[in-house]
Specification:
globular, mainly alpha, 2 domains, 312 residues, MetI-like fold, two-stranded antiparallel ribbon, 1% strand, disordered C terminus, 12 helices
Length: 312
């Protein structure tokens, strides 16, 4: 397992390089550098000065693959194109903790709601409850987050006035955006849990456990739970990366100063330095969480053994 983890870590920079190169390629085909200020064109001498300050006087390969990464990671002085008084590190240092807080709450809600609903649909033994779970899961997957967020704002924020409709910092400001962000992930987890439990309960070892007279709770917790959790665990890797780096739509609806807000604004403003920095952050989270999920497979299921990068 340790050797497998080390080999995966060696591929870490290659995956980040591939994601970063894809973003660089898209930016190179996008017109403009994002240095314009408002609708008025900058004087030629001012534009030339800004181009030099942002290293646009260098070859593209040197700027994107050496100067900007060095200024971002080592010097920590890479400025954002549309925020002259802020560096990219300062912007992300303020935004990333907010997205992480929202992501932790949303991921916890998604796992609690999704796994509980999927388990009750199978273990409860009530056909109506099973159909209701499938219906709610379908709605959670199908209805866009901007519709869910807008409905929650209108009902609980404006009509009932039970929760703030925006902002961040107080506990009351976290529930609506966290639930909006968690709902589609909870729906996926519920469907995965239900499907996995149906497969597990059809296995011979479950029939043997029931034949021994074990209670429904013992059969579920001692025999079915660990096996049914594996498909959910595989889904949690990319899901956690997406949640923790912030939802663009949710943070815009609830006016949350997280990563999602800055990603949307950086794309709108063609802020190349901020775009590439957010790509690196998302890629880092994606690779790390997928690695953690792969390692947890061997911990949760003893049948899984990793040898030379191959699961058996």
């Amino acid at each position: 397992m340790l050797r497998y983890a080390l080999r995966r870590l060696l591929f870490f920079p290659l995956v980040l390089l591939a994601m970063y190169s894809g973003a660089v390629g898209l930016l190179m085909f996008t017109p403009g550098q994002g240095l314009e200020s408002g609708e008025k064109e900058l004087p030629p001498e001012v534009l030339a000065q800004r181009l030099k300050a942002y290293n646009y006087d260098e070859p593209w390969w040197q700027r994107y693959y050496w100067t900007w990464p060095k200024r971002l990671v080592w010097d920590r002085d890479l400025p954002a194109h549309q925020y002259e008084d802020w560096t990219v590190v300062e912007i992300m240092s303020a935004a990333l903790p907010v997205s992480l807080q929202l992501g932790v709450i949303a991921l916890g809600l998604a796992m609690l709601i999704g796994f509980s609903a999927g388990a009750l649909a199978v273990v409860g033994g009530i056909p109506l409850l099973d159909r209701l779970t499938l219906l709610l899961a379908l709605l959670g997957i199908s209805v866009p987050t901007f519709v869910v967020g807008a409905l929650l704002v209108m009902v609980f924020g404006i009509w009932l006035q039970g929760f703030p409709v925006g902002g961040w910092g107080r506990p009351s400001q976290t529930l609506l955006p966290a639930f909006t962000l968690a709902l589609p992930y909870a729906a996926y987890i519920a469907r995965l849990t239900r499907s996995a439990l149906l497969d597990v309960y059809d296995q011979d070892f479950i029939r043997t456990a029931r034949a021994k007279g074990l209670s429904t709770a013992r059969v579920f917790f001692d025999h079915a739970l660990r096996n049914a959790f594996l498909p959910v665990l595989g889904y949690l890797g990319p899901a956690a990366a997406a949640i923790f780096t912030g939802s663009f739509v949710v943070e815009k609806i609830f006016v949350i100063p997280g990563m999602g807000t800055h990603v949307v604004e950086s794309i709108h403003n063609r802020d190349q330095s901020l775009i590439l920095a957010t790509v690196l952050v998302y890629g880092t989270f994606l690779v790390l969480f997928n690695l953690i999920v792969d390692l947890l497979y061997g911990v949760i299921d003893p049948r899984v053994r990793v040898d030379e990068g191959v699961s058996t």
